[in-house]
Specification:
single chain; alpha/beta; Rossmann fold; UDP-N-acetylmuramoyl-L-alanine:D-glutamate ligase; Protein-Tyrosine Phosphatase, Chain A; 6-stranded mixed beta sheet; 20 strands; 34% helix; globular
Length: 442
């Protein structure tokens, strides 16, 4: 891509699009972006930060695209009929997928790509942060916000470095990871999520064949995955590897497993384990990954991106041993995903009933499009309740917040979970505020 070219991003506030916008600005492009949340007056936290780095925000009405535009960038979520796509067609502007544009930026770099069914955002952030602390000065493009890099003016999911080394998150959900030909890769784990297990295994095998130097992850016999026994506590976890002790101030066995993979990759890049351990101890995690939104009235509120059974289970199992009760709030992120996960979710919610006296399920997040609402949150609640799960439909955010503040008592944790909906981080903060109100508690 040539410095100074104009690139327009559709849905620029999205978790995959906003980091690409920042990376394009850092590479010298003229970047504009549109988003339906901007059009409806929702000033999401990310939007003013994008303006500050130089992204020109415009209405999603085609006005951001002209004859001189070099490319219009889309994600898989952007559907036909979008005004920006129609403008691109009128002006003969090529439409490029988000991952294809990122792959162009990676040309001539030493690329480390992190993928997997779960944990890839956390591991991308860990690897990027560790390499920064170890002096490699990498460029990092991640779907989640690294708490160590976030400021009032900076999103924190992108770091522009001066070396050839790049660390990027590669998404399997739309098969776009196959646009990358990395030097190194981490495959965090492989399980059925967006595709049946056989298809998922085949997809990661295709990706693995594109990696030039080495892969950390399943099938890697040089790391002690099977004998790994971290020590877990309310303050984080500790584990040993190759005679070196490591401490990570994050909850959950899954985060210890994430950290081990990041450590092994950094070791293979030539860094001493002692220095890696020192850096890991200062990693503060990823926003919306077991992210403590606040504490009030003796209750802790934790926000997490968990949106499928494996991730919900991991979040629940990470927090449950350390609190008297777990109150759960969850929002399904689409009608299609809910239909695929329906049976597994019902079984999981029954399993969670031992430590979760109440699981509130919000309506499916839906912002329009061609999805068929054949399976709803109401249907999930009805079926799971018939099987004995402690579930209840929360009709909206206000009702959920009021009910949660009423139910919660000292020693509890509220675990707020879900993906895609940009109002979910605010939900966790609103629950903290409600708990602080004089009338909350029981």
């Amino acid at each position: 891509m040539t410095t100074g070219q104009h690139v327009h991003l559709v849905g620029v506030a999205g978790v995959g699009m906003n980091p690409l916008a920042q990376a394009l600005v850092a590479a010298g492009a003229q970047v504009s972006g549109s988003d339906r949340y901007l059009d409806t007056g929702h000033e999401l936290d990310v939007l003013p930060k994008l303006r500050r780095v130089g992204v020109r925000l415009v209405a999603q009405d085609g006005s951001g695209v002209g004859p001189a535009t070099a490319a219009v960038v889309v994600s898989t979520a952007i559907e036909a009929g979008n005004p920006d796509l129609e403008a691109a067609a009128r002006h003969g502007v090529p439409i490029v997928h988000r991952a294809q544009m990122l792959a162009r930026l990676l040309e001539g770099t030493e690329c480390i790509a992190v993928t997997g069914t779960s944990g890839k955002t956390t591991v991308t952030g860990m690897v990027g942060y560790l390499l920064e602390q170890l002096g490699d000065d990498p460029t990092v493009v991640n779907g989640g916000i690294v708490a160590n890099w976030e400021t009032p003016d900076v999103v924190g999911n992108v770091r522009a470095g001066s070396s050839r080394r790049w660390v990027v998150e590669a998404d399997e959900s739309d098969r776009s990871l196959l646009h990358f030909t990395p030097d190194w890769a981490i495959i965090t784990n492989i399980s059925a999520d967006h595709f049946p297990l056989d298809d998922t295994v085949a997809l990661f095998e295709q990706f693995a064949a594109r990696v030039k130097k080495g892969i950390v992850g399943p099938g890697d016999e040089r790391a002690p995955w099977r004998t790994f026994e971290p020590v877990l506590s309310p303050d984080g976890c500790t584990f040993a590897y190759a005679g070196q002790e490591f401490r990570l101030p994050l909850l959950g066995r899954h985060n210890a497993e994430n950290a081990l993979q990041a450590v092994v990759l950094c070791e293979r890049l030539g860094h001493p384990l002692g220095r890696i351990a020192k850096a890991l101890a200062t990693f503060r995690g990823i926003r919306r990954r077991l992210d403590v939104a606040g504490r009030a009235a003796g209750v802790t509120v934790i926000d997490d991106y968990a949106h499928n059974p494996a991730k919900i289970r991991a979040a629940w199992q990470a927090v449950a041993p350390h609190y008297a009760r777990v109150l759960v709030a969850w929002r399904p992120h689409g009608f299609g995903p809910l239909a695929k996960m329906f049976t597994d979710l019902g079984a999981l919610f029954r399993e969670m009933g031992g430590t979760c006296p109440h699981i509130a399920i919000l309506p499916v997040y839906y912002v329009g499009g061609t999805a068929t609402a054949s399976v709803t949150a109401e249907a999930l609640v009805a079926e799971a309740a018939r099987e004995g799960a402690p579930v209840e439909l929360a009709p909206d955010y206000d009702a959920l917040i009021a009910a949660t503040a009423e139910r919660a008592r000292p020693g509890d944790v509220v675990l707020s979970m879900g993906a895609r909906d940009p109002e979910l981080p605010a939900l966790a903060r609103r629950i903290v505020k409600a708990l602080n109100a004089p009338s909350s508690g029981s």
